[in-house]
Amino acid sequence: MNIHEYQGKELLRRYGVAVLDGHLATTPEEAEAAARRLPGPVYVVKSQIHAGGRGAGRFTNDPNGKGGVRLARSPEEVKAEAAKMLGSVLVTKQTGPEGKQVNRLYVEAGCEIARELYLALLLDRDVGRIAIMASTEGGMEIEEVAEKHPEKILRVHVDPATGVQGWHGRKLAFGLGLEGKQVQAFVGFVTALYRAYTELDCAIVEINPLVVTKGGDVVALDAKVSFDDNALFRHKDLEALRDDTEMDPKELDAVRNDLNYVALDGEIGCMVNGAGLAMATMDIIKLYGSSPANFLDVGGTADSARVTQAFRIITSDPNVKAILVNIFGGIAKCDMIATGIVEASKNLSLSVPLVVRLEGTNVELGKKILAESGLAIIPADNLADAAQKAVAAVKKAA
Ligand code: ADP
Ligand code: MG
């Protein structure tokens, strides 16, 4: 789960990570009031969307104008900039061409930058440890640095048994060319960030840029914080930070119904139990010349209510031209799944071809329920047969 910069900074502040003062605003008046609570004389008005590259981004209604991060020299100017930014659509390298509407702004104290650095914590799966990455090339996307100047990325790994140590921070600080009191400040920064990362069960914390100010302070100017979804159950307070407007509505619906759903851009809706089988189903659809509209694992405990929710989400996607149900009945028995499919098809008055492949516990009973339902369900005997029939149904519809 991703959160906004202002939310990330608020959390990091609690762990003692150095950030500047700032306030959230959703109207130009709030933005002006927010600026009045800051020391000035320079303010920065920052678009809050779940995408990076805001500074270099452009608004669709003003393609030659200023970007999504703007400097202002008075509270009145903050208000004027906020009025232009709020409600407008910002396109950045990370939003895709459709962009994202800006509904929230973060009005932050401006600072004088001496150096822009990069710092991130993430899980290095190859090593099985948290990696702390740093680079002198702050402000640039790290993927670009990795491609053009891989030698400019410094990396240390943290042994989970000892946690972060002073030498981790010092090694990076010296590598970044920090001097004097900046070294100690940086070490403190890294230590606080590591605590935040582990205690909040983060997936990534990226500070780009981490700046050294003209006064010699080390401060996070940007913060990208995302959480490990599998650990969210133990952070109920963090779930409240989810911004529903940033999510694909189908995925949000799925999260609320406890379904493992990922929206894709193909034309065959998939309902499968088990993540592995769901991946195999997507592969075989590709093999036979079409593409999946989604990944969906209904889980091992699927009942007819879950099946109905799953169908509802799948069919809310206008790109879906056929549905492929691929269930291996284990704990979820085939007859129960079949009943769920029949109920859901009737309740939702399904209008696209439905191919069903059932296997496993009570499969004969399940097939009988489908056959006697009177619905135009296309039965399939195995995975290949199912995929071919679904692809054929799509081709026929086109
Ligand atoms: P993004 O990465 O989405 O473009 P950032 O928060 O990194 O957004 O801001 C872009 C740039 O704007 C930064 O690299 C920095 O140069 C400048 N900037 C951001 N916040 C401030 C601030 N509070 N004071 C001065 N400059 C800032
Ligand atoms: Mg940034």
The Cα radius of gyration reads: 26 Å
Mean pLDDT: 93
Based on secondary structure, the structural category is alpha+beta
Distinct small molecules: adenosine-5'-diphosphate, magnesium ion
CATH architect. name of the largest domain: 3-Layer(aba) Sandwich
Range of helix content: 25-40%
Number of helices: 13
Strand content: 25-35%
CATH-derived topology of the largest domain: Rossmann fold
Uncertain segments: none
* Through-space gap between termini: 37 Å
Number of domains: 3
Largest sheet: 6 strands, antiparallel
Backbone shape = elongated
Q: For the record, what CATH class of the largest domain applies?
A: Alpha Beta
**CATH homologous superfamily assignment of the largest domain:** Succinyl-CoA synthetase domains
Describe the structure.
- This protein is an alpha+beta fold and 398 residues long.
- It has three domains: 21-109, 2-Layer Sandwich (Dna Ligase, domain 1); 113-236, ATP-grasp fold, B domain (D-amino Acid Aminotransferase, Chain A, domain 1, 2-Layer Sandwich), CATH 3.30.470; 248-397, Rossmann fold (3-Layer(aba) Sandwich), CATH 3.40.50.
- Helix content is 35%, strand content 25%.
- It is built from 13 helices and 19 strands.
- It has helices spanning 5-14, 28-36, 75-85, 142-148, 166-175, 181-199, 236-239, 249-256, 275-287, 304-315, 334-347, 363-371, 383-397; strands at residues 22-25, 43-47, 58-59, 69-72, 89-91, 100-101, 105-109, 113-124, 129-135, 153-158, 202-213, 218-220, 224-227, 260-263, 268-272, 294-297, 322-329, 354-360, 377-380.
- The strands form five sheets. Strands 8, 9, 10, 11, 12 and 13 form a six-stranded antiparallel beta sheet that branches.
- Strand 17, helix 11 and strand 18 (354-360) form a beta-alpha-beta unit.
- Helix 8 (249-256) runs antiparallel to helix 10 and helix 11 (334-347) runs parallel beside helix 12.
- The structure holds adenosine-5'-diphosphate and magnesium ion.
- Magnesium ion binds next to loops.
